[in-house]
């Protein structure tokens, strides 16, 4: 009755997803990412909500090939990304939410740790892909740094979830000049952000 | 415009959730868990899908007070649970998915690592709460161990997500004699499982 072979389960899931989402007006690479998002959420409604800046998957892959690090807003998202695959290209997976200085600064200012964590990360040297699955405040801060502080943000996978600010922060990302993959509306989360990042890594082959 | 104080953001979110989900036929404790699930998913449809065995929250709290460990199916879920809070009662947060013997056994049998990981965990001494956010196969295996191998499973937070087996495994859990909190349908995931476990920990006060 139930299936126990992980490869068969995934293949069967992907066939069901293909059937249920039907035709979409998107590139082959975009469809692969969309299928991973639906796979992670079991929410077929999201198939038409994933938003890509032009050539987003290719841009993210180029950054990864150049050794970009991936910075996550929360440790849960960090746990969901295929670190081994990223390491093949020299990049590291990082999260500063539990960094001591970040925690002190958040305490002192009353701002979220997520804000302080991305502020710290954005100022580090090197190429970076930000993956924001949880905190709208982190995404707003990246947009502000890009706009007001002239800190060019290379790429954002931005899918914060929630009732306060999540949809608005993603809307602003979609309007920005930052290369991105995002999701319309309130839904999102770490699993979805991880599925997007992993879809990009998996498309890169071995 | 956007809010940056984490306590205010959470309080505002919870007020919005209260308003949107309206009256539910459930206990005060159940409502707290349901609100956390909606908060984690931004999916108000889930408010009526969370399923509790009788007195589930109280049973889970009793286990935690007795020093139960919490065993997760995947590391992503482990990252999402408040470990510090659990440690106050002597319990540990554990996940065996990357355990060397588990990986070897999965390779040898062609079964999922999730199956092998819960099989190992269930045979350890001591009280345990299983939190299954991802793998239907892990949940099916726990149900089998409970039924066929007479390994009494104390409690399951079971919210695997997906197209193959997820809804069916949760349905079987809801029909079982194992104390549980679960979610009807295909949706679920690590963030939802974490939100349920954390809601129980947060209700325990300091």
TrEMBL record, chains A, B:
InterPro entries: Cbl_synth_CobH/CbiC, CobH/CbiC_sf. The keyword Isomerase applies. Keywords: Cobalamin biosynthesis, Isomerase. One of its GO terms (biological process) is cobalamin biosynthetic process. GO terms for molecular function: precorrin-8X methylmutase activity. Pfam families: CbiC. Transmembrane segments: none annotated. This is Precorrin-8X methylmutase CbiC/CobH. It comes from Halanaerobium hydrogeniformans (Halanaerobium sp. (strain sapolanicus)). Pathway: Cofactor biosynthesis; adenosylcobalamin biosynthesis. Residues 8-203 form the Cobalamin biosynthesis precorrin-8X methylmutase CobH/CbiC domain. Belongs to the CobH/CbiC family. Signal peptide: none annotated.
């Amino acid at each position: 009755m139930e299936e126990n072979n992980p490869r068969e389960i995934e293949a069967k899931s992907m066939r069901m997803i293909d059937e249920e989402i039907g035709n979409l007006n998107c590139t082959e690479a975009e469809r692969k990412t969309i299928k991973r998002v639906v796979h992670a959420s079991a929410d077929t409604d999201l198939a038409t909500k994933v938003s890509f800046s032009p050539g987003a998957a290719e841009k993210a892959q180029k950054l990864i090939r150049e050794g970009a690090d991936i910075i996550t807003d929360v440790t849960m998202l960090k746990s969901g990304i295929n670190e081994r695959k990223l390491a093949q290209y020299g990049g590291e997976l990082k999260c500063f939410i539990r960094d001591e200085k970040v925690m002190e600064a958040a305490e002192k200012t009353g701002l979220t740790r997520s804000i302080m964590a991305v502020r710290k990360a954005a100022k580090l040297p090197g190429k970076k892909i930000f993956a924001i699955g949880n905190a709208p405040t982190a995404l707003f801060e990246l947009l502000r740094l890009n706009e007001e502080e002239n800190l060019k943000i290379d790429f954002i996978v931005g899918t914060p979830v929630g009732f306060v600010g999540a949809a608005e922060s993603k809307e602003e990302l979609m309007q920005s000049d930052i290369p991105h993959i995002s999701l319309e509306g309130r839904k999102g989360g770490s699993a979805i952000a991880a599925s997007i990042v992993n879809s990009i890594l998996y498309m890169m082959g071995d």
